[in-house]
Every structure is written in C-alpha cells, then in structure tokens.
Amino acid sequence: HAPAAIESLRASGIRSIYAYGMQAYDYKGSNRFRSHQQRLDVMKNIHQQYYGSGNKTLNQMGVLLSDFGTIPFAHTAKEIELANDLGIFVASHTGAAEKSILLKGLHELKHNNLLKPGHLHIHCTALDNSEWKILKETGGKVSIAPETEMQMGMGRPPFRASIDHGFKPGLSSDIVCVGSGDLFSQMRLGLQFQRCMDSEAEANRTGKTTTKIGLSVRDALTWATHGSAEAMGMEKEIGSITKGKKADIIIVSQKEAFVPSSYPAGSVVLQTTASGVDTVIINGDVKKRFGQLTQQNTDKIRSDATEALRRIQKAAKKLPKQTAEEVAAFFDTAQEQARENFSAGYRYKK
User: I want to staple 170 with a disulfide (CB 3.0 to 4.6 A). Which of 148, 227, 295, 341 is the partner?
Assistant: First the structure.
C-alpha cells in the first residue's frame, strides 16, 4: 500500500508529504508484519527506495507515529528516533480522545527529549495547559480538523487554545468517510465554531448579549494558508504569494455566482466549496484550468476507483461488527495499557 500511495501522490503532481502510518492495527496479526521492528525496517526501506540520495521532488516523506499509549513506550521512542535519523517529517494524533489519557504522554516524551521542533500535533482537543506549554517549548506545530473532531466526539476544536498559546494553527480534514474532506468546509466550520465559543464565553463573563466578533474571515484564511504551510514545515516555500516563494496558487471562480462578490475574502471562506476552484498551479505548473484537470485521465481514474470501491464493499461485508459496549470496553482496556506504557517513559534508556 505504501508504494501505491507514494506513486499516486507523485502522479497527481501535488506538493505533498507521504506520512508512513505506524498505527499498531496496521500490522498486528497480519501475515506480512509480525513485529514492530518489521514496520521500522519497512519505513527505512521506503525512505531508501523513494527518498534517498537527496531525491528532491514535490513529494517528501514523513511518518505518522503510532497513537501514544497504544504501544510500549520503547516502541514509540524507536519510531521517533528512526524518523530523526532519516531526517523526515514527524506527525502524531495528539490528545485526540476527550476525557482520556490515550494519545497523550507528552510529559514522558519531553522527559526523554523525544519531542523535536517541527513535530506536527494533530487535533490536540484534550490537552491541558501544561501540555500546551510542552508543545510550545518543544517547537511543535498544530493542525486542527474541526469537522472530524466534532463528529467523532474528540472534544472541541482547540482554535482558541492554540492561538492563546502562540500557535498559528493549520487546517486538516483527518478522514473523509465521516466528513466532507473539503478544506473550504474546515475553514468555515472552524471559524463559526470558535466564534460561537467565544461569544458564549463573553456572554457568561459579562451577563450581556455579545455585540462583537473577534475572529474574522481573514483569520480562517490564515489558518488555511500561512498556518497550514507552517504546520507542514513549508512556510518558507509556500503559504503566501510572496516574492521568492514557490508558485502554489489556486484561483476561485465566480462564474457560478449570481452577482460578483462584494468581499472576495468572505466569499472564499463562507460560500466556496472545492467545486469552485477554477485553476490550480503547483510549483508554477498548471494542474487544473477552467475546472478541469489538465494532466490526468479522469475517466480512467473514476473507472479504476469505482472498481476498487466494489472490491472494498465486498470485503467490508465480512468484517465483524462491534457494539457500542464492545468499543467502550476496548477504550477502558486501552487506557489501562496506556498508563503502563507511559509510566515506562521514566525508566526508558536509549
């Protein structure tokens, strides 16, 4: 699956980071991977095959770490240490389970100097003040996926917390099986959610009806552009139309609008969807024009994807169904295991 994902990203021509996923459920009990070390070996081999020898392309390599607490602390440490040795991008789902110790362990990771500058922490909905300070002190970055976070019960998307702690958050969609996958939607949802929370806090503090809005559409645009580029470690290359940066630009069409926009920034954030993107330019190369991809056979892509969907639907029917009670029991067990795994962080020696 990893080579296919890398090849598809490169064929698309998009600027991207392929983050090899280390989640435990990706290998446990499979015929191919019988140990965590095998996964580490594959990560190393993928880097050598596709990204070694200074291979500079629009697609670079990263790793999505196993969820903190779900595997032994020493395994988490080995994932981070290998990523650092390879010099690749590091990301994790951090603090994404409300009222849970799962996906935390930041104090233990910091204790072992395992949180390096540029580490992208995704979600962060369940972090307390001390954990936000750790992210700041270690040079971490933040990406928020408001649609998924609200839908999956992860907690409140932490725009205000990240801003108050000095972060310029980026935006992400996390997963498209339960949401739109549309990054314009993430702007809109994130902005309106945080406006709601800010107004509620102000009303509770003053006892009066809110009469002002603190966050503007420009803030949401910043999250989607500057903030997201910074979250990916690419702020010096992209994220703004600035002399010396790469030409990664989209043009939003107004041809579907009844009348021209009186405030384009507002229209982009509040009314636009992905279908409104007329032109896409990556590294100065036009990939989409007049709403059509210029370098892809979309009929073949659609046909192949439809056939793949049929295979997945057929296989999915054989998967066991889990009740809500079984899922709750899994979380209870996982939390007990996480406590043991995190405590090992104070005994860990490289």
Answer: 227
The distance of Cα 20 from the centroid of its chain, to the nearest Å, equals 13
Place of tokens 């997201």: 228
pLDDT of 28: 52
* Tokens 């032109």 belong to residue: 279
Q: Is 348 helix (H, G, I), strand (E, B) or coil?
A: coil
* Mean pLDDT of all residues in 125-140: 98
Say how far apart CA 332 and CA 202 lie, in whole Å.
36
**The pLDDT of residue 110:** 97
**SS3 assignment, position 142:** strand
- Cβ neighbours for 275, distance < 8 A, ≥ 6 positions apart: 291
Please say whether the beta carbons of 136 and 166 come within 8 A: yes
pLDDT digits (tens, 9 = 90+) for 234-264: 999 999 999 999 999 999 998 878 888 999 9
Determine the Cα–Cα distance for residues 170 and 225; give it in Å rounded to an integer.
8
Q: Given a cut of 70, is residue 29 above it in pLDDT? A: no
Q: How many Å apart are CA 261 and CA 85, to the nearest integer?
A: 50
Q: Give the three-state DSSP class for 233.
A: coil
Q: Are 172 and 122 in contact (CB under 8 A)?
A: yes
Q: What is the pLDDT of residue 198?
A: 95
Q: How far apart are CA 250 and CA 264, in angstroms?
A: 14
Query: Are 93 and 123 a contacting pair, CB within 8 Å?
Result: yes
Give the 3-state secondary structure of residue 172: coil
Note the pLDDT tens digit of each residue in 156-168: 999 999 999 999 9
Name the percent of the chain lying above pLDDT 70.
97
| 158, two tokens | 């932490």
Output DSSP code: residue 223. I
Q: How many CB atoms lie within 10 A of CB 339?
A: 13
Pairing between β-strand 285-289 and β-strand 277-282 as defined by DSSP bridges: antiparallel
